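Board notes, transcribed. Complex of a protein with manganese (II) ion.
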Amino acid sequence: MVDVEKVLDEAGLKNPRVREYVAHWAAITEPDRIEVVSAADDARLVQEALDAGELQPAGEGLDYSRSYHKDTARSEERTIVATNNPQDRGVYNNWRPASEMKPMLVERMRGASRGKTMYVIPYLMAPPGSPLEPFAAGVELTDTRTVVLHMIRMSRVGAEYVDALADPDTFVRAVHVTGDLPNLGQGTPDDQRYFVTVADERTILHYGSSYGGNALLGKIAHGLRQACYDGWASGGFLAEQFMLLGIIDKETGKRYHVCGGFPSASGKTNLAMTLAPDALGDRYRVEFYGDDIAWLWVNPDDGRVYGMNPEFGVFGVAKDTNELTNPTALDSIQPGSGAIFTNVAYNDQTEEVWWEGKTKEPPADLTGWRDWKGELISEREPGDTSPWAHPNSRFTTTLANVPNVAANFEDPAGVPIDAIIFGGRTSDREPLVRAIRDLAEGVYDGLTLGAEATFAAEGVDGQLRYDPMSMRPFMAYSEGEYAAHWLRIIGQATEQPIFAHVNWFQRDPEDGHFRWPGYRENLRALLWLCELKDGLVTGRETPVGVLPTQDELHLDGLEIDQADLDVILTIDTERWRQEMGFREAHLKQFDNLPEEIWEAHRRVAQALDDD
Ligand code: GDP
Ligand code: PGA
Ligand code: MN
Ligand code: MN
């Protein structure tokens, strides 16, 4: 047995509640060694991981890792929110009683760290000094070194963050045990994995994965699921899967801040890292605050909604990242940045990485190239066209590496929010942008956000997989309460943000091309929205919101067919009427949905009928 007290003394970790927690779990998982880590340990841990073959070099200060081939994405079916109150059961949170889940996880974790090191990762999910800091501290215990390296990039890590707590008990207890990955029955009826947030006990127990989305407990489980619950239980804030960016109009000096949610793999990271289109000249600057999580609250001093990114880094999708689509992302993963690539293709002779869309064609010389499973590309069967990189392969880099990160990205005061946007992958019906000024209608729009079902067989034609506010995988309590909480929090603001729905993904059904060029051109839609909020443009009223007229959009230098532009600036009333039926069925699943939301739904439906 490790002498826990001695290890914690040597690490100078003083918080008595944290010490009890570490000792408690060490007795259950029985590690051979315990190590308390901080950001200062990064270089040593990287070297250890390289020596152990957990990482491979990918250029100066760049590294590569593969996760087990059945462990490459978040598992929504195995993710559970447990509490002691059955009323917390929602449609999407897979609610189970805490009394059932906790003993089950303890049994799975018992003795599971024998022969391994338990890393103790004290972290903070907020800029220090934030008004939401009381909800931001946590301690992850993990048995996997690459998880530590990712946590150091994605959150602020060090014992000082838990030793400074006003109440030593207010940290999230986050236990990660990888388990025996080849023997967990991933995706079979005998699946052993469980990813549980015991929300009312602020305890996270994840067993059966070492992939980022399941194993970086500060990010997804704490930053979203736990914080979603805490924001509601405290009555004080919202925690959402939102990107957050700033737009500066250098001519007028005006700054706007836009945040918003798109389901995973729908463009949040790309939008937050966008740059002003070259064709708009030097007038606008876009600044990055966050790409995946925003916590929102109302500042009583000025009555405005404020937002901040609790993360310290970016965990971005690699696929299609290139000089044209996202030069900012490429700049943030340059040699010397400390970036880690996961599950892309890797060349173990030249130590290069590649992913689909990095260059138009894959490298011509196949020597040394291995796909994300570690198999040699040169030994593939003829005609095997499967991707070299996993579609969910990622890069991990710190915010400070992002070239357009805002100067005040760590300001604990956060930034005032002008606009809240929602968007998903919808190939028809949803226009480029439609603005919504009414709070209940904005919340209603968020609740009916969806993206196309991925497998044709599973979906009804034209019907979306709804993903309320992009929080479906992170919803911690019942959706009716969630909607009421949104109305309450944003309703406190004396200056309301404008809402909008955006869509970069309409396609021509004939040949499938995207009607809108997307990526950095998306800024044009956001500029219009900010100008609408300021009364500089008026737009055109439709039953589902205000749309830009063509001459209001900044279209200088944009290459787009007039026919495509016409479609993305129009409302297809027939398709919208059909959608209203789907929405009604979707919303009916939620208990206690506030009457204001139903009123908004009926208003929109009526306006469409009258159209
Ligand atoms: P996130 O998971 O929401 O952060 O989404 P990402 O920004 O990582 O993007 C997911 C995928 O969508 C990537 O393959 C991007 O290249 C692609 N994507 C992002 N923005 C756009 C866009 O405006 N248009 C098109 N066509 N694709 C996009
Ligand atoms: P994503 O973030 O939204 O960029 O995919 C990671 C995740 O949601 O797992
Ligand atoms: Mn996400
Ligand atoms: Mn992202």
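The chain has a mean pLDDT of 96. The chain is about 25% helix and 20% strand.
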